[in-house]
Each structure stands twice: as structure tokens, then as C-alpha cells.
Design goal:
It contains 16 helices and no strands. By secondary structure, it is mainly α. The chain is globular.
Length: 345
């Protein structure tokens, strides 16, 4: 008996933009928890400020473009943008930093190019890069991790709120007493002063693998990223290629001169490599589309990040590396078009 077969597609994929964004938010929870444990509750305040700004700015842009509000406000893309920017900022950064960075990301990096699905650059990284270039001093005021020997002054939640909204610490405190350079910034400064890696690693900000406290934050980020891979929300090519793009040159230079260059494990656990690999570079809109293209795209981000960290002007280079490779995506996609099944290459 001949059966009538309806035309394809025969099965509707269960994913929607809203569901994917919700799962990404869930995957960020372990990193947020570890961030709060080691760096205090300031991140929660930054996220709330960023999300409120993102939703308000998104609503304004949609209203001006005469687009349906609830359909796009509920898809979660603006919320993810705000959360990623907040994770990149110091917990005690003044409120106007996260507000202005998020508003810039939503209005200019997203809606100026046509809104969701049309932006060629990662909105969160555009917003963060603008803040990093415009206000570098404010973005260096990271809290010392809440670990014995590093944090000598405890900030209560009221102190955190006062600092974020006034821009000033309580009168009894100074910035030198509560802040500490990040592991990458410390490494960069001490190597520039002529110290060897062995001398640099004696600094109490460094732990077994990377920075004390930062190791756990990166491990929690890795756990969330692996869960996204298991849920098939992201593909493996970009995270693996990005981490390899950092680790391989780091391993080569470390093998050549271990006194001047840190090893690959430090680079993977001492900065934003994990966040960039699993949550930033994997943005489906601004990333390459084919499997080969994703490998090239991820590897390019990793190598550029390592170059910036080692010889550039910033301790961490994830944001600039992502934006540079975003610009290269059209060329990558052009030369990595998958072969159509049944057709010669």
C-alpha cells in the first residue's frame, strides 16, 4: 500500500528563542553564585540595574520601530545582554556604567542594525568595549576576593548599595583597602617590572591554577557551559576552538620560556576565557554558521585574545577579539559554505 507523505518539515523543533535564552540564564547561575560568594553581592545589583535598563531601552526602541512589544521583550535576548555586561564589570562599579553600557548595546549595537537577528556584532561586547575604552579607571576597581589573606575589609549590603549609587565608599574605607587588581592585571604589571613567573606567582592573588577565587568562578562558568553543550543549545566547535586558540600559543611560549610566560591553565582560569568561550562567542547571530567556520571563528578569537593579553594594551582581550572576529564572519561564511549533500565539493 502506498502511503501519502506530507512535505517537509516532518517535525517541529522544540526550541524557541525564549526557551534558549532561559536555558542560557540558568547556565549562568553557577557562575553568578560563585561571583557573589567571592566578590560580594554587587553583581546582583548590577544585574538588576542592567536588566531594568535593557527592558526599558528595548521597549523604547520597539515602540519607535513600531514593533510588537511583548513578543520581543519576552524573548530574553535583552536580559542576556544585560547579564553579560554586568558580569564583565567590577561589582562596585557606579550605577551609570552598567546603565549606559547596556543602553548603548541595545539601542546602537542591536536595534540600529535591525533588531534581533540582524546585528553583526555581539551587543554585549560592543557595550562593554565602549565602557572599557571610555572609562578604563572605573573598570579596574575590582574587589579583592573574599578569601583569607586577600580581603581585609568586609562590605555589608548597605555599603555596596551606597558605593554603587553614590560612587563613593563609606567614609571609614578607602579604595586601596577593598580593591585588588585581577590576576591578569597583576601578572601584566609584575612582568613589566622585570619579575619572573616564579616571583609573580608568589603574590597572594594567585592560586593553584589561576587567580584565587577566580578559579572557582571560571570552574562554575565551565559547568554551565558544559550543560549548554549537553542540552544542545550551543555547538562544541566555538568553545573548543576558542580555548585551544588561547591554550596552544600559551603552551608553546611557556615551553620556550617558562620564566616569562604563564602556562595555558593560568590563561584558561585567570580571566574571562570560559565566559567568552561558552556564553559570548557562541552568540548565534554574530558568529560563523558552518562547522568549519565556527572552528576558524573560535580559534581566531582565542589567538587574538592571547596576543592582546601578552603584547597588547589590556590585561584581557576577549571583548576586542570577539568584535574583530565578528567583523570577519561574512568572509569566513563565504569561504566555508557547507557542501550540499549529493553535490560535488
Amino acid at each position: 500500500m502506498k502511503l501519502a507523505t506530507p512535505p517537509a518539515p516532518h517535525e517541529i523543533a522544540p526550541n524557541s528563542v525564549g526557551r534558549v535564552m532561559r536555558l542560557v540564564i540558568y547556565a549562568l547561575v553557577p557562575a553568578i553564585v560563585m561571583h557573589v560568594v567571592f566578590l560580594g553581592p554587587g553583581l546582583i545589583v548590577q544585574i538588576l540595574l542592567g536588566v531594568a535598563t535593557a527592558l526599558a531601552t528595548e521597549a523604547l526602541a520597539l515602540q519607535l520601530r513600531r514593533q510588537p512589544l511583548w513578543r520581543f521583550l519576552s524573548d530574553g535576548t535583552a536580559i542576556i545582554t544585560a547579564m553579560l555586561i554586568a558580569l564583565c564589570l567590577p561589582p562596585l562599579a557606579p550605577w551609570w556604567l552598567v546603565v549606559s553600557g547596556t543602553a548603548f548595546a541595545i539601542l546602537l549595537a542591536k536595534h540600529l542594525f535591525g533588531g534581533m537577528g540582524a546585528n553583526p556584532f555581539n551587543p554585549a561586547m560592543v557595550g562593554y568595549a565602549v565602557l572599557l575604552v571610555s572609562f578604563p579607571a572605573q573598570l579596574t576597581q575590582w574587589l579583592a576576593p573574599n578569601i583569607s589573606g586577600l580581603q581585609t575589609v568586609h562590605l555589608g549590603f548597605g555599603d555596596v548599595l551606597q558605593t554603587i549609587f553614590s560612587g563613593e565608599l563609606p567614609a571609614r574605607l578607602t579604595w586601596d583597602a577593598v580593591t585588588s587588581p585581577t590576576p591578569l592585571a597583576t601578572l601584566r604589571t609584575q612582568l613589566a617590572l622585570g619579575q619572573t613567573m616564579q616571583e609573580v606567582r608568589a603574590n597572594p592573588v594567585f592560586g593553584i591554577l589561576g587567580g584565587r577565587g577566580w578559579e572557582w568562578i571560571n570552574f562554575a562558568t565551565l559547568v554551565g557551559g558544559i550543560w549548554l553543550l549537553a542540552m544542545r543549545i550551543i555547538r562544541w566547535q566555538i568553545p573548543v576552538a576558542l580555548l585551544a586558540g588561547i591554550a596552544v600559543p600559551a603552551g608553546i611560549l611557556y615551553a620556550i620560556d617558562p620564566g616569562s610566560y604563564p602556562g595555558p591553565i593560568f590563561h584558561l582560569t585567570g580571566g574571562a576565557a570560559m565566559l567568552g568561550a561558552f556564553f559570548i562567542a557562541t552568540d548565534p547571530v554574530s558568529a560563523a554558521t558552518s562547522d568549519r567556520g565556527r572552528l576558524i571563528y573560535g580559534a581566531g578569537i582565542g589567538v587574538i585574545t592571547y596576543v592582546i593579553r601578552t603584547w597588547g594594551g589590556y590585561p584581557d582581550g576577549i571583548a576586542f577579539a570577539v568584535l574583530l572576529m565578528n567583523a570577519a564572519v561574512p568572509l569566513i561564511d563565504r569561504f566555508t559554505v557547507p557542501r550540499i549533500y549529493g553535490h560535488p565539493p
